[in-house]
Design a protein that fits this description.
Oligomer: single chain
Shape: globular
Order of helices and strands: HEEEEEEEEEEEEH
Number of helices: 2
Strand content: 25-35%
Mean pLDDT: 79
Helix content: 10-25%
Largest sheet: 7 strands, mixed
Radius of gyration: 22 Å
CATH topology: Immunoglobulin-like
CATH architecture: Sandwich
């Protein structure tokens, strides 16, 4: 009886608890390199779009960025170094489309990095939020089903404030900045403290409960 109970509890931990815990830090997601930025009316500034593959290997990504076209205008999209082929479309006001893909179906991307950098021009004073459209954006896994592995809850937004002078992350020129990937982040920020705490506390609590049950048998 005791051995049977241990086996059942072990299966529960293996197939339910551990995937849920480690999924908190291994989910594929899209990020802006700055969560806040500011510029003066007429200035341009750059925001990098990055992808974190989590625990998956990727072969492509489709990224749709929404923004307030009354406050901002997307002027240039410069390819990052993560994917060998990057295309974009900024013809629709309030939207930026970016696609990154591998050139060889046998290859894949398994590290975080910059897909592209968007240059925006400030049109008037105000606050605008850059966000990823989760209904259309995708992070495609390198598998036979081309599975979308993006976890929308792990994506972030970027709040842009126009007016009151420039700050870190702005480009004080009034024309689109030249392509320069040297300022792009080489990696994404590490997981937050909460994720790390959950990662270690939950398995420990489960082992404690298991030990208590065994003492009662």
């Amino acid at each position: 009886m005791k051995k049977k109970l241990i086996k059942i509890l072990s299966l529960v931990i293996l197939f339910i608890v551990f995937p849920a815990v480690f999924g908190l830090v291994d989910a594929a997601s899209l990020k802006f390199d700055k969560t806040t930025a500011s510029a003066s009316n007429g200035q341009t500034f750059q925001i990098a779009v990055t992808v974190d593959p989590g625990s998956d290997a990727l072969n492509s990504t489709d990224i749709y960025v929404n923004y307030d076209s009354t406050i901002l205008k997307a002027t240039v999209v410069s390819a990052g170094s993560l994917f060998p082929t990057v295309t974009n479309d900024i013809s629709t006001a309030g939207k930026v489309y970016i696609a990154g893909m591998v050139n060889d179906v046998a290859s894949s991307i398994s590290t975080s990095g910059t897909v592209a950098t968007i240059t925006f021009q400030a049109l008037k004073d105000g606050t605008a939020t850059l966000s990823f459209d989760c209904s259309t954006s995708k992070i495609i896994k390198n598998d036979i089903n081309a599975s979308d592995v993006m976890t929308c809850s792990q994506n972030n937004n970027s709040v842009i404030t126009i007016g009151g002078g420039s700050s870190q992350g702005t480009n004080p020129t009034s024309v689109p900045a030249a392509t320069d990937n040297s300022s792009n982040p080489s990696e994404l920020p590490q997981s937050g403290i909460f994720d790390n705490v959950v990662k270690f506390i939950i398995p420990g609590a489960i082992l404690l409960i298991l030990g208590s049950m065994l003492r009662l048998l």
